[in-house]
Amino acid sequence: MMKLARFADTFRKDEDGSASIELVLVTPIIAWALLSTLVYFDAFRADTRSERAGLTIADMFSREQTPVNAAYMDGARALLRTLVESDPNPQLRVTSYSYDQPSDTYIVRWSQNRGMGMNLTTADLALMRGRLPILANGATSLLIETRAEYRAPFALGIAPFTDNNLGAVEFTTFTVIAPRFAPSICFDPTPANPSNGDELC
Predict the structure, then answer these.
(1) Which helix (H) or strand (E) covers residue 142, if one does?
(2) Burial of 192 (0-12, 13-18, 19+ CB in 10 A)
(3) Which positions ≥6 away from 140 have C-beta within 8 Å?
(4) Distance from C-alpha of 195 to C-alpha of 201, rounded to nearest angstrom
(5) Which spans in the chain are helix H?
(6) What angle do CA 39, 42, 46 make, to 5 degrees?
């Protein structure tokens, strides 16, 4: 019994080990940590690019002094695709709206989208009221929304990259900007006749 107790005590205090066994045990943890760092840094990079792209598109629209049209919207989406890089089909929606003080209502003047499926309505703006800045009576502003997907190269088992199928993480931007050089930005629904006076402002 004494020998057994002595052996157990010696085994407990023994600090000798095999470096190769320790390496086998630690390598998967190190590899996972490195891949996790890679994916998260890449995701933050994609998110930053998405935010900057949304601001760039918003600034571009705000500087216009002549009506934009469908071709302009297509070009804006192409630019967005180039800027975000992570998504070959980013989504874009541009909405011009004004504020009516007597009715305390945000009113949609025009809304156009590429890929989002639906244009915004006055009712939609009412639901977004808490996210819209206060405007003077009759003042107009632009709401620029973008969506871009990012797919992680590895499934890490940590949110949001837990999907074994490497499902996409969606980055969205919501930017409100005032026209810089004109009272409002107009949209021309008939680009073949840009001077027909039917612009939506």
Answers:
(1) strand 140-150
(2) exposed
(3) 96, 97, 98, 109, 178, 179, 183, 184, 185
(4) 14
(5) 2-13, 19-62, 70-84, 122-127
(6) 135
Give the C-alpha separation, 149 to 152, whole Å. 10
| C-beta of residue 99 within 8 angstroms of C-beta of residue 62 | no
**Beta carbons within 10 angstroms of residue 151's beta carbon:** 15
- Tell me: the pLDDT tens digits for 104-161? 999 999 999 999 989 999 999 999 999 999 999 999 999 999 999 988 877 666 666 6
What SS3 state is found at 113? strand
pLDDT digit string (tens) for 54-81? 999 999 999 999 999 999 999 999 999 9
pTM for this model (two decimals) = 0.79
Instruction: Identify the burial level of 1 via C-beta atoms within 10 angstroms of its C-beta, where 0-12 means exposed, 13-18 middle and 19 or more buried.
Output: exposed
Q: CA–CA distance from 55 to each of 58, 61, 200 (Å)?
A: 5, 10, 23
Cβ within 8 Å of residue 137, ≥6 positions away: 99, 100, 101, 102
Yes or no: say if 124 and 136 are a contact pair by the CB < 8 Å rule: no
Evaluate whether 67 touches 194 at the Cβ level (below 8 Å): yes
